[in-house]
Design a protein that fits this description.
heterodimer, A: mainly alpha, Non-ribosomal Peptide Synthetase Peptidyl Carrier Protein, Chain A, globular, B: alpha/beta, Rossmann fold, 4 domains, 17 strands
């Protein structure tokens, strides 16, 4: 997962314009300054483009809900990418 | 390498890769821009950022550049009042507005944008105490979509019922425009309907007038036909068809966030809207300058000869060049000035236009033909000066990346789009920038090439005439004077917003604002159209003045530079003075507001015999001319026409 985490972190850094941003599994929207609903869309688009995946409508909404964190996001990503590779 | 060199090198790579659909190079550009900002090279950073903003940006890169632009804006204020733009919508417009601001910044427009709360655009217009009316925008953009259609016919409705509903639907929109326009005098930009891709009636959908798709298509037709002139219909439906309707309407983002379209296409959407605003502020380009070898035909004419270049039927690549020429010819026909700038022997280059049977473009299409061995930057300067337009009016297309890069470095005012290697992609590469955006087509546009040719002939007549007087007399000029009215409103608006050089105050007005002046009994408006023995120049001068306290105050005086030094100014003065005297006014007052481009009219009022009545530190000067007794017309070689005034 560490390789994926680095790539995801790159996307976060580029979307939030912060080269020093560090993310962990437990990171939530509240931990990242500026992660509002507008930035959430920007993040989703950047992830889809970077990893060649497509999030479902429900996933787009769920990933920003309370109790969700970067770990959840990476699991969803990993499962989508696994499906692509398989 | 200096900061400038680094920025320009990363800019070149960024433009090339963006055109090719890659975004990897942007991080280098962003790093270089950040470094320039940190080191305090703010203006350099701003100019580079401006040029890096192109409509082919992907969404994520566009957001990154928009953020940089906001950062820069906080640190580097641009003097002058911003253009106020209100965006009303039933959708989420945060991302769209941010991108519109970025593209306006790229076009050199300082903007201040007001957004309504989500979903209340009708209330904003109907409630006279709303934020919209406090904001007083100059442009009102109604960012609607197909979902905003208020009434839809039942599938069984007959033609009459559909037609009644269409009338009702149109009237409800016309009522909103009218209310906003009456109170704000603003120009309105109204989206048409981006008809969705799904069709319950399948192939029959569009033909059946009571189907959703059929009704919307008819509504779009109605908008184009019947919207008043102060409403610019923004062709959103075209954007969605260009994007591909299923791609455009990525429903996930509507359901989740009420976005107007898939985020990827917000970039082009924002560019399209910005180009409509910029062009109405006089910021569109006027002239397309073309390289020849491998740009208009395949191969090198100097090496391959007439029989060796690839152009026209029988060869796929040759047909692609021909298609590009056809596209360029159509641009020329609607008023884009065409010019050639090529490294070639002139007679060899011209011979292709004269003799090659597959050429679409002819010498008569080209207003200025430059083929020599000098560097292209100098030649582009020469072309601008010969056509009497600014360098920032030029677009330069050249297949050679080296030449493009040199021109970008040496004449940054010229727009230089990336071209793909395959000529079949040239049309798209040029078209997507909307350099020549237009909101109206005037008789002057249709005759522009002829006018520039006539100018060249006039210049040679001038060279051979003994004196200026003799020359002016030989032109047999006939002028037609008329106030601004519905018949010439579009051209008058275009001239006011496009003139940079012969423009005393450089005040830009929308068609709506001009009509407000026209309807004000204290206003005097004047337009002059000029014809001569070489051709019809069309409407070439506009004046707006206002009567107050015994003074006729000239707010706006613009003239096309094509008719400089012909005595038109003096002719206009006669009319203004007589208009002032008829109203019992004793003074004619004019103002000069200096800009980077209007130095040619610095001494305009002095030359007309006005006395200086004031000046300010920023270089503004005020001038007055006393009006007494009977006005004696001054000697000019312009005859005033009755009737339509066109030379026969």
């Amino acid at each position: 997962m560490d390789g994926l985490r680095n790539h995801v972190q790159d996307v976060f850094r580029s979307v939030f314009g912060d080269e020093t941003l560090v993310i962990q599994d437990a990171t939530t929207a509240d931990d990242v300054p500026g992660w509002d609903s507008l930035m959430h869309i920007n993040l989703i688009i950047a992830m889809e483009k970077r990893f060649g995946v497509k999030f479902a409508t429900a996933e787009i909404g769920r990933l920003k809900e309370d109790g969700q964190n970067v770990g959840t996001l990476m699991q969803v990503l990993a499962s989508k990418m696994g499906r692509i590779q398989a | 390498m200096t900061a400038r060199d680094i920025l320009l090198a990363t800019l070149d790579t960024h433009l090339r890769e963006t055109e090719a659909g890659l975004s990897a190079a942007t991080s280098d550009l962003v790093r270089a821009l950040r470094a320039a900002i940190d080191e305090g090279h703010l203006e350099l950073a701003r100019e580079t950022l401006r040029r890096s903003v192109v409509p082919s940006l992907d969404y994520t890169t566009a957001q990154t550049l928009a953020r940089l632009q906001q950062e820069l804006g906080r640190r580097l204020d641009v003097p002058g009042d911003p253009v106020r733009i209100a965006v009303l919508s039933s959708l989420t417009t945060g991302q769209l507005v941010r991108l519109i601001e970025m593209f306006l910044f790229a076009a050199g427009v300082k903007a201040e944008v007001y957004q309504s709360e989500y979903g209340v655009f009708r209330q904003e217009i109907l409630d006279e105490g709303s934020g919209l009316y406090r904001f007083k925008p100059r442009f009102l953009f109604l960012a609607t979509c197909w979902r905003d259609v208020g009434t839809r016919p039942d599938l069984s409705a007959d033609l009459d019922a559909v037609s009644n509903l269409l009338n009702r639907e149109f009237a409800s929109w016309a009522d909103l425009w009218d209310r906003a326009h009456r109170r704000l005098q603003c120009q309105i930009i109204q989206n048409n309907l981006d008809v969705p891709p799904w069709r319950a009636l399948g192939n029959h959908e569009a033909r059946h007038p009571a189907s959703p798709g059929g009704f919307m298509a008819r509504m779009n037709g109605r908008l184009f036909e019947s919207a008043p002139r102060y409403v610019t219909i923004h062709d959103l439906d075209h954007l969605s068809s260009v994007a591909g309707r299923w791609q455009w309407s990525d429903e996930r983002f509507y359901h989740h966030a009420k976005l107007p379209c898939a985020p990827e296409f917000l970039v082009d959407y924002a560019h399209s809207v910005s180009s409509l605003i910029a062009t109405q502020l006089g910021q569109s380009r006027k002239c397309l300058v073309m390289d020849l070898d491998n740009t208009l035909w395949g191969g090198v004419i100097g090496d391959d000869g007439l029989g060796g270049i690839r152009l026209g039927q029988g060869d796929g690549e040759g047909e692609a060049y021909q298609s590009f020429q056809r596209y360029v010819r159509d641009l020329g026909r609607r008023g884009v000035i065409l010019a050639v700038c090529s490294k070639n022997e002139e007679h060899i280059a011209r011979e292709v236009f004269e003799k090659h049977t597959e050429m679409v473009l002819r010498l008569s299409d080209i207003a200025c033909f430059v083929a020599n061995w000098q560097d292209k930057a100098s030649n582009l300067r020469a072309i601008a000066s010969r056509l009497n337009i600014g360098l920032n009016s030029l677009v330069f297309v050249d297949d050679n990346p080296m030449e493009r890069s040199i021109v970008r470095h040496l004449v940054p005012e010229v727009a230089v789009p990336e071209l793909p290697e395959d000529p079949a992609g040239y049309v798209h590469a040029l078209e997507r920038h909307r350099y020549f955006q237009s909101v109206a087509l005037n008789p002057e546009d249709l005759q522009r090439t002829e006018m520039y040719h006539a100018n060249v002939e006039r210049e040679s007549a001038e060279a051979s005439a003994g004196s200026l007087d003799e020359f002016l007399r030989s032109l047999a000029m006939v002028a037609r004077v008329a106030p601004i009215g519905m018949g010439n409103l579009e051209r008058a608006t275009q001239l006011i917003n496009r003139s940079n050089q012969f423009n005393l105050t450089t005040r830009r007005y929308s068609a709506g604002e001009i009509m407000q002046r026209v309807n004000d009994p204290n206003s005097v408006t004047l337009t002059v159209s000029l014809a001569d023995r070489f051709g019809d120049n069309g409407l070439i001068s506009v004046i707006i003045a206002c009567c107050a306290d015994g003074v006729l105050d000239i707010d706006t005086w613009v003239m096309s530079c094509r008719v400089l030094k012909r005595g038109v100014e003096v002719f206009v003065l006669d009319h203004l003075s007589r208009a002032g005297l008829e109203r019992g006014l004793g003074v004619l007052r004019g103002e000069y507001v200096p800009t980077a481009k209007n130095v040619i009219v610095r001494d305009h009022y002095e030359a007309l015999g006005f006395a200086r009545a004031g000046s300010a530190e920023d270089g503004r000067t005020v001038w007055e001319l006393k009006l007494e007794g009977e006005w004696q017309d001054r000697a000019v070689h312009i005859e005033e026409a009755q009737g339509d005034g066109r030379a026969s």
